[in-house]
Amino acid sequence: MTETTLELGYALDTFYFLMCTALVMFMACGFAMLESGLVRSRNTVEILTKNALLYAIACLVFLVVGYNVMYPAEAISSVIPGLDFMLGSDNSVADISAGEGAPYYSSMADFIFQAVFAAATMSIVSGAIAERMKLWPFLIFAVAMVAFIYPVEGYWKWGGGFLDAMGFQDFAGSVVVHMAGAAAALAAVILVGPRKGRYGANGEVRAIPGANLPIAMLGMFILWMGWFGFNGGSMLKVASVDDANAVARIFVNTNTAAAAGMVAAALLSRALFGKTDMTMVINGALAGLVAITAEPLLPTAGLSAMVGAVGGIVVVLSVLGLDRLKIDDPVGAISVHGTAGIWGILAVLFSNPDATLGVQLIGTLVVFAWMFGASFAVLWIIRTVMGLRISEQEEREGMDLHECGMLAYPEFVAASAQEAGTPKPGKRPAASPMAGMTAQKGA
Fold first, then answer.
1. To the nearest 10°, the Cα dihedral for 172, 177, 180, 186?
2. Contact assessment for residue 206 and residue 394, using Cβ atoms and an 8 Å cutoff
């Protein structure tokens, strides 16, 4: 292969990698829209601010230390990564001409791609603890999460650690990213507790409607689009016929799983509630995307549809189950990313001959134990030092006023109703996001 051909392939693979990075970065907007649509209007500004700041903090912290923990120059062992700071120089022409094993894309492109993955993992936590966790304790936790907690388990699989050596198969992160974020979210939700009024004394689930369901639907479609970069970019290359065909197959399988997950969740919600719950439809699509993320390359389109459909069914049942356990997750993040992520990692067995049930289970349990345990410990320390939860008055009046000093919809919400945290007289809340139908069924 000539030097010119090598350089052209390097440039094309790098460009493709960067375009996929842009798609994944746009998922930050998707998370922000989805979450702001599913919370009450008096908490909109806070959750938007939180999503913007967590993205900025994640990128900075991953630049300073997180990336080098996940991909250490010299690891201490297959369990303990090394520690280094900042980024080195990029590849040269001599590097890419070095023969077998030479880099075929820019190391800077790899960094920024992994940085937006880290931010996406942290975004999963954001929605689960919406409407009751203080802003700055959350951001402090984001620093620990992106600097150390997430990169360590990422190293175990993607940085050449012991899970990779065992043969744990997770193509783009059903467990390494999505279930990992859900495990951290579960720890936070347990420590913070449910929103006031969410559950009755006799176990009934009370609907808490979101403020803007059209924005929530927009967030879902942005996330769906971003997933093409999430899964497609994890192919890492596109500059040959085989690689280009593989990327196209990943796009088809990713889209198919999302569509099947959405339809399956819609059918199940109709069967269970007698209504088609839009929030279940949204999370069905996202669950299908999470499920196929573990292996979007090898399945046929038909198998991808099955994986996505089961993901859509699993997420509905998981949302209802967590509500019975009084685990309050306003956007269904733990179910979408956690439960569907576990299903996705097991579904790898249907198409990847290198996957074994024992190793897939061990990898899943190890990642869950680390992410939940480390997150719980850090959050417990933060709670002890400065607290995690807002006061009852702040929760009643809204986080926007107390955390950010402004309202998202000042012209459209009467000030008295906003401050009291109640709907305007004579107005009934809109359809409930997340298990709204559960409350109607008396669950």
1. -130
2. no
Cβ atoms 171, 344 nearer than 8 A? no
d(CA 153, CA 80): 10
In tens, the pLDDT along 162-208 reads 999 999 999 999 999 999 999 999 999 999 999 998 998 887 889 89
Residue with tokens 């819609």: 266
Dump pLDDT digits (tens) for 253-297. 999 999 999 999 999 999 999 999 999 999 999 999 999 999 999
pTM, rounded to two decimals: 0.90
Amino acid identity, position 391: S
Q: Is the pLDDT of residue 247 over 90?
A: yes
The architecture in CATH of the region 3-386 reads Orthogonal Bundle (1.10)
Start-to-end CA distance of the chain, whole Å, equals 65
- Determine the pLDDT at residue 429: 37
CA 308, CA 299: separation in Å to the nearest integer?
Answer: 12
In the chain, the amino acid numbered 181 is G
Q: Residue type for 243, please?
A: D
Count CB atoms within 10 A of the CB of residue 437.
Answer: 24
Strands (E), 57-117: none
133 three-class SS:
strand
Domain map (residue ranges) of the chain:
3-386
Cα dihedral angle (161, 166, 169, 175), rounded to 10 degrees?
-60
Give the integer Cα–Cα distance in Å for 293 and 194: 30
Half-sphere exposure of residue 128, counting CA atoms within 13 Å on the CB side?
Answer: 30
The residue whose two tokens read 């995307």 is 289
